[in-house]
Every structure is written in C-alpha cells, then in structure tokens.
C-alpha cells in the first residue's frame, strides 16, 4: 500500500509528481499548503496540533495516499505511516524557472493575478533555500531524507519520467 511523502524546495515539482501519482496510481493527494496556514493576511502558520488533526483525518480516510509539501515539521508527523519518501532536490535555478512557468493554482490563490503578484516574493524565498535554517530549508530536508529508514529516492532534475 503506497503512502508516499514528497518534499523539497518550492518549485521543485512536488505537486506535479503528486498529481501524476494521483492520476496513474489512484492515490489520494494532500498538498500541505492547504492546511498549514491560517486564512489571514499576511499568512500565519496554524498551530502544528491543528495541522496534525487535519493530516490524521486525511490519512484515516484514505488507504493509499501521497502527501507533499516543504514542511518537514508536518512530514515528521506521518513519517512512521509512510512507505516511501521522495526528495525533490532540484537546483535552485530549476525551481525558479518552474515557479515562473507554474499554472494558476486556484486552491492557493483567488486569481492568476494574485499568484503572479506573489511571484517576486516566492522567487526570493526559493533562492534562500540553502541559506535558511527552518523547517522549509535544504538542511531540514536533507536531514529528513538521511534519517528516513524506509524506501527513498532523490530527484535532482526535471524529467518527463515521473514514475515513483
């Protein structure tokens, strides 16, 4: 039974791979962006306990799933249930190019214009990936990958071959 965690920098292809797995393998898909933040402006993280309850509800109602996001703190909550992890470890330049080419994400933004207005901030945030020291950072992702004892793989380039 597939229970896959996908993580990496913003723009690395997490959502694309998760959608592919949903469509080809019938896995339920959870994008952690949809439950990690309060609906406030500026955005503010929900308490981890609140996100944990939503993740538990998702995993309890789905036999097989793929969960994706850049939140190592949230991924650790379901690490023991997972059967596999995928670290989308693409070069920062590729992540920025992917972010610029990203289609509108209506589950995250009210309009394509609102998404585009956020792009300069997102590009700056992507560029800081290896310099940050938080749950979204390269350091946190690398440590999560290294400490995982189950099946794992690292993707280091964009590819049309999304088999996982």
Can you walk me through this structure?
By secondary structure, this protein is an alpha/beta fold. The protein is 44% helix and 17% strand. The chain is built from seven helices and seven strands. It has helices at residues 14-25, 33-36, 48-60, 72-78, 92-101, 112-127, 138-147; strands at residues 3-8, 28-31, 37-38, 44-45, 65-68, 84-88, 151-155. The strands form two sheets. It has a five-stranded parallel β-sheet, with helices on both faces. Strands 3-4 form a two-stranded antiparallel sheet. A hairpin with a 5-residue loop joins strand 3 (37-38) and strand 4 (44-45). Helix 3 (48-60) crosses helix 4 and helix 5 (92-101) packs antiparallel against helix 6. The chain is globular and about 40 Å long. The mean pLDDT is 92.
Features:
7 strands; two-stranded antiparallel ribbon; alpha/beta; 164 residues; single chain; 7 helices; five-stranded parallel sheet
Summarize the structure.
The chain has about 160 residues and is an alpha/beta fold. The protein has helices spanning about 15-25, 35, 50-60, 70-80, 90-100, 110-125, 140-145, and strands at about 5-10, 30, 35-40, 45, 65-70, 85-90, 150-155.
- Rg measurement, Å: 15 Å
Portion in beta strands:
15-25%
Amino- and carboxy-terminal Cα gap: 13 Å
Spans of at least 5 consecutive residues whose pLDDT stays below 50 are none
Order of helices and strands: EHEHEEHEHEHHHE
Using the alpha-carbon principal axes, give the shape: globular
How are the strands ordered across the major sheet?
2-5-1-6-7
Major sheet summary line:
5 strands, parallel
Total number of strands:
7
Which percent range fits the helix content? 40-55%
Mean pLDDT: 92
Q: Structural class of the secondary elements?
A: alpha/beta
